[in-house]
Design goal:
11 helices; five-stranded antiparallel sheet; five-stranded mixed sheet; Dna Topoisomerase Vi A Subunit, Chain: A, domain 2; alpha+beta; DNA Primase, Chain A
Length: about 325
């Protein structure tokens, strides 16, 4: 391919073309829909496109423009890629995608109750979670009792600012993200000195695993922990991408992570979600499936363990 001189104005114009719009217009068969706003590449299943951006998880590379995509993924020489796009857009002008800005409500946490007595009783007596662990998360404002409904509220932070809250009733089977929550900052615990991240379906499973470690005389603060906030169901139903936003965001914020250990539920949904996530991430991370084998989830595993220990006593 000839390497014609590329004028600055022409270069600026082709840089506006996103990789997603390039494929959508000129190679639509290469895009596989993978959720509400997510697509992946037919020939590279770890290459995802979402909201105008692309990221190649197995290679740890990403970007926005079609130009960067052609150079990084397709192996084009830079000038060849420029000339190719110029010729292509002259023959057929692309239809570009407009991304509407999300209209979000200001995030305000549910009002705190005057005490946490009911949720402590629920978490410690019914769910068998260690009280020291519950007290720790209460002390750092990641767990509290809401005033109106007495729900237990699990809080996630963007830096020092609350950005996510998950509400769970202690009286009935009610659980829901609080209005305005950003799942990118779901309930978690970060230890920047550890390269290991333990991944769970729910906050209660996360706390349960910490309790199991403590029962085995291990320091529950020695690793990183993340709740996916119920993303497994959506992965299984293909309404979300194979990499939950909570996990994707945590890994982007914590470049020290090398090993992912998954403790999702012992059912078709949990096992299937684990397989899909590991299939995408295993080329970049050491991925381990450690879901409960004899119990339905990690909290059920803790309850059985606690029962055995009390019987031995």
């Amino acid at each position: 391919m000839s390497k014609r001189y590329i004028r600055k104005a022409a270069l600026q114009e082709i840089r506006k073309l996103s990789a997603f719009d390039y494929l959508k217009n000129y190679q639509p068969d290469m895009l596989i829909k993978n959720g509400r706003t997510d697509y992946y590449h037919r020939e590279h299943d770890s290459l995802h496109f979402s909201n105008g951006k692309w990221y190649w998880w197995s290679q740890g590379k990403g970007g926005t423009s079609a130009l960067d995509y052609l150079v990084t993924v397709e192996g084009f020489d830079f000038k060849d890629a420029c000339n190719y796009l110029l010729d292509l857009t002259k023959i057929s002008a692309p239809v570009t995608t407009y991304y509407y800005p999300k209209q979000t409500k200001p995030f305000v946490l549910p009002i705190k109750d005057t005490n946490n007595d009911l949720i402590i009783r629920y978490l410690c007596n019914q769910r068998k979670i260690d009280k020291d662990i519950v007290d720790y998360f209460i002390s750092v404002n990641q767990i509290y009792q809401d005033k109106q409904f007495k729900n237990v509220v699990f809080v996630g932070y963007d830096g020092s600012n609350p950005a996510y809250a998950f509400k769970r009733s202690i009286f009935k089977n009610y659980k829901l993200d609080h209005s305005g929550s950003n799942k990118a900052f779901s309930f978690s615990f970060t230890n920047s000195n550890s390269s290991i991240l333990h991944v769970f379906e729910a906050a209660i499973d996360l706390l349960s695993y910490m309790t199991i470690l403590k029962l085995d005389h291990q320091d529950f603060k020695q690793y990183n922990y993340l709740s996916l906030a119920g993303a497994s169901d959506k992965i299984a139903s293909k309404t979300e991408a194979d990499i939950p936003i909570a996990l994707k965001s945590f890994l982007e914020r914590n470049k020290n992570i090398k090993t992912l250990i998954f403790h999702l539920d012992n059912d078709e949904v949990g096992i299937g979600a684990t397989f899909k996530i590991m299939n995408v991430l295993s080329q970049k991370y050491d991925c381990i499936d450690d879901h409960p084998k004899d119990c339905k989830d990690v909290n059920d595993e803790l309850i059985h363990k606690s029962l055995l220990l009390s019987t031995d006593l």
